[in-house]
Each structure stands twice: as structure tokens, then as C-alpha cells.
Model the fold of this input.
Amino acid sequence: MTLQTREQHIRRERATSNICTAQALLANMCAMYAVYHGPEGLRAIARYVHSLAILLKAGAKACGLGVSDTPFFDTILVSYPSDKAQEIIESGWRKNINLRGYDKRTVAISLDETSSFNDVCDILQVLSGLENLPFAKGDLRSVEILSERELRRTSFLTQAVFNQYHSETELMRYIKKLENKDLSLTHSMIPLGSCTMKLNAVSEMQAISWSEFAEIHPFAPAHQTAGYTKLLKQLAGFLAQLTGFSAVSLQPNSGAQGEYAGLLVVKAYQKAKGESHRDLCLIPSSAHGTNPASAVLAGLKVVIVDCDKNGNVDFIDLENKAAQYRERLSVFMMTYPSTHGVFEADIQKYCDLIHKYGGQVYLDGANLNAQLGLCFPAEYGADVCHMNLHKTFCIPHGGGGPGAGPIAVKDHLAAYLPGHCLVTDVGGNSGIHAVSAAPFGNAGILPIPWAYIRMMGFEGLKRATQVAILNANYIAHRLRNHYEVLYKGTHGFVAHECIVDVRKFKKSCGIEVFDIAKRLMDYGFHAPTVSFPVAGTLMIEPTESESLQEMDRFCAAMIAIREEIRAIEEGRADPVNNVLKNAPHTLAMVTASSWDRPYSREQAAMPSEWIRENKFWPAVSRIDEAYGDRNFMCTCS
Ligand SMILES: *Cc1c(COP(=O)(O)O)cnc(C)c1O
Done:
């Protein structure tokens, strides 16, 4: 898992995974379940669940039902001599019980630690059709449980972390201790370019904890999900309107999964037209790592298109390559505004060119925060685009998801939107196979974008976009006398993010982009995106959520750091032993009894006035840069 999340970024078209936004938050929730219960707690839960399942099985037998004698844990199958499964399932609904149809004659029942003995009796009434069970409840309890044969004998979860936080107070403090190491949006702005770290308002998120949303199974019968279905349909409609496309699939769980789905949709369309020989994808060198990685996963060969000195697609190169590969051209993947943070004025020209050669245009819509309400990707000529609902539409994604990356398509592609083998009402008529396990992907978080759109309204969304663009230009402008802003559009402006070029400092005094990123931590800021899409640069995206005061603090920090660099350039600070090379400074460093640095502790850790009342202490200083991304190791005790 560790390798996969970095692989697309580092290895691009040679990657074997396109994962960027992962499910790290959900993985952490699972981990905390194990931390809280520990091996003994998990064993107790398992014993309880298994013993309930044994009672269920014994009860079913006592009712004269057909139960198989194969080993089982939490799930048993009950078979009927005739096609009765649907009838049994429907009688379950009347008691608020959902059973699974295994085949026409068989139903499957799974129990878990939230099931009770009374539930088992209710289930038996449904399975047998008997209001009065032919045995006393106490009789079932006496049934011998647990077969030693299937029990696990090896030990597990032996690490300390799984054996010391077994009270709620202890667990709470443990989680808080971890949280304290994390600089989040609750401290200061997270200017990660391309990641759109905007406010996730409580009013947008509140509803996802309601049981009406949180406790619906992905395969719950349609009559139980009328509200959810309405919300999902409305959301898909809003997204279609906001992008100008005609149909939307909510299934992909991330932007990268949307890319994969969109490319498969294009391939299915081309196959239906008798053009399955089209197997090649053109991608500009500026593209996000997921683009080439997704193209390869979708079975396409990737050809990279150059960018010109202004950061735009090199049109001559695009024209040459489209012509050269005209027979094989399947799709052109383009991010707009580009990852260089500019609106490419020629986007329509690129799309026309690709269509002329029979290709389709995939628009990477991760940067929709620069477009919403102002312009419509379908109008530029794109055929399909994904949206990162966990960026533009306020789903929190710090730490890696859960994400939602729906795709929107034009009419001619709608028939191929992904379907689902268990749910009929999903996707197009000739839909490709499902791209995620659940029919509507991470449906549990979709009330967030729905609420965001409903509360903002079209004018509100447009205003947010305008402010996001204004904020990025404000920062670019404030920094212009101190740093070089790498790319600008035709009129001298950036889009919703800007790239600050710090490469010249390596020559002038040995300072690199990492040193600046680490030093920003001493000033209480999360580093911007580093070395993407241009190595040795910082990409800054303030979003519409940041106030003028916060942006001024950030700019002040950047400008102060420029002066610290100047001190090294001019020989006033040591080229190796300086505030930048030693950043970030931890509490342990500045409170140690000895201090032998040529600068003061105050300069190290309290370099500005506002930090004094809101100091965030980095937990560790530098370790080994990207070494850990490339060299996978386990730190188990
Ligand atoms: C974030 C991003 C992606 C990938 O989206 P995930 O949801 O992280 O998979 C793709 N392209 C661009 C330009 C992005 O910023």
C-alpha cells in the first residue's frame, strides 16, 4: 500500500498502480478498531459472532429447515425445496431484516457483533414462517458451541500498540496524541497545489453521520433507499449541469479511478464503432502522474507530448504526434487549467485537432475549482471528464480520502458508463463492468457535495471560483518582487494556483526547494506541493477558503525566508549550518541544554510574531527525504 500511493507520481507510465487519493482514513479507522479491541477483544467478538451463528444454525435445524453441514464462521445458508428465496426475503423486510438471495432456493444470513439473540429468534421466525418457534429459547442456549478444529492457534497483533489502549479514555488520548503530530487545516492554510485543500464545513458534513445515510448497505433493496437514490440522482444532475455534459457516473472512488473508468468507456465506444485498433493515448509532459498510470492500466500505450517554454502544450508537437499516430490514436488526456496553473487559451484547438484524427478527449477535471460557474468543460470540446468531489466539492481528503471521482460524458459515451452485476439500475445500456465494488462508489460521503452545491447555489459556486482565482493571483502578485512565478497565462495572470520557481537558489547558495518547504514548518505552515509538476519548484493553491490575513501571513513567511536565503547568498549566514538547512526545528532541539548553532533559538523556532500565540511544533526534523518512498521497510518491533 505504501508503495502504491507514491508509484504513479514517481514512475508515471511505468507505474503498476494509479492510486493517488487512497482510502487511508478508512484504513486508519480499521486500525483503530484493532488497537481498541486488541487480540483478546477480537477473539471475544469472533467467539460471540460464531456462537450466535451456531445458535442460528441449530434453531434452523430444529425448525426442520435445510442447512448445510460445511464449516462456517458467521454466515449460514438455508435452502428450500422450491423457489422460495424471494418470498422469504420479502417476509424479512416486514421485520426490518435484510437477507441475501443466494440463489432461487437459498438465502444467506450473516451475523456480526451488533446482532443479538433476539435477532436470531426473529430471523428464525422469518426463515421458518412460524410465529411460535418449536422450541424454548433457553433450549438453544444449551447447544454445544465452537469446534476446536477451526480455531486459530498462532498469535496475532502482538505489537504493543494493540495491547495498551483498551479503555475509551486511553484510546481517545492515543488518537489525540497522533493528531497532535499533524498540521491540519485547523492550524493554518495548506497551500498544496492541485490538491485544493479548502474548508470542509460542518454544515456540509453533518448529514453523513445520520443513520439514514451512514447505515445503508450498498446492496440494500431499492425500496429502502428512495431518499438516497433521489439525492444521488440530483447530485449527478447538478454535476452534469455544472460541467455541461449529459450523463454522469458516480461510481469511481477517486480521480484516478475516474480516469481509468473514463478511458475504458472511450475504449468501449471505439470498439462498438469497429475501432478497437485505437490503442494509444497522448499525454502532455505536464500531466499529473495518475494520467499516464491510468492510461497504462486501461491497456493504452502512452506517448508524451512536449510543453513549450510558457508551460502550454506544444501545439506543433501535438499536431505531429496526432498525425503520426492517426491510425492508433484513441484518446488525448489534458488537464485544464493545466497543472502549470494556467488557462490554456488554445484548448478548443487541441480538442478539434484530436477529433479530426478520430480520437477522443479526456479532460482531467481535478482543477474544476478554477472553472465552476465560469466555464463548462464540455464546451471546450472534451468528451469525458472526471471531477474530484474531494477537492472542489468539499469532501475532506487530508491524509488520503475517502474520495469520489465521478465522470461526466457526452451523449455518445453515455451508453458505456460503468454498470454493476448485482444492481440493474446503474450505468449505461452497454455499460462497461463495475470499476468499484459498490454501485455508487463511496456513496456514504456524497451528501457532502450535494449539500455544498445546494447551499452555495450556482451564483455561490461561481463566486467561490472567482475568489479562488483572485487569491492565487494575490499571492503570485505579493511574491513577485521576491520570487519568480514560473508560468502565467496570455494576460499575465495565473489560474487557481501558481508555481514559484526557486531553482536559482541552488546555484546562488545551495538552497533547494526542500529547504524552503521545511523552513515553512518553522513558520507554522504546511509546505506547498513540492517538485510537481516542475522539479525544484513550489506549487501554491490558496483556495477561496483562505482569508486575506492568512494569505498575508503566508506571504510574509515566504518573504522572510527569501531574506534568510539572501543572508546566505551574501555570506552573512553559514552556507551549511543555517536556519534553512537545519529546518524544521523541533521542540527537543531548541530546548536541549546545549545549543551550538550560529543563529539563536528564537530565530530557529519563533521567526515571526504570530507564531508565538499559535506555535505548531513539528514532531521530527528531517529524516531522509524521498528515501522512504523508494525504499519500503516495515517498522514493526
Ligand atoms: C488530484 C489529482 C488527480 C488524481 O485524483 P485522485 O482523486 O487523487 O486519484 C488527477 N489529476 C490532477 C490534476 C489532480 O490534481
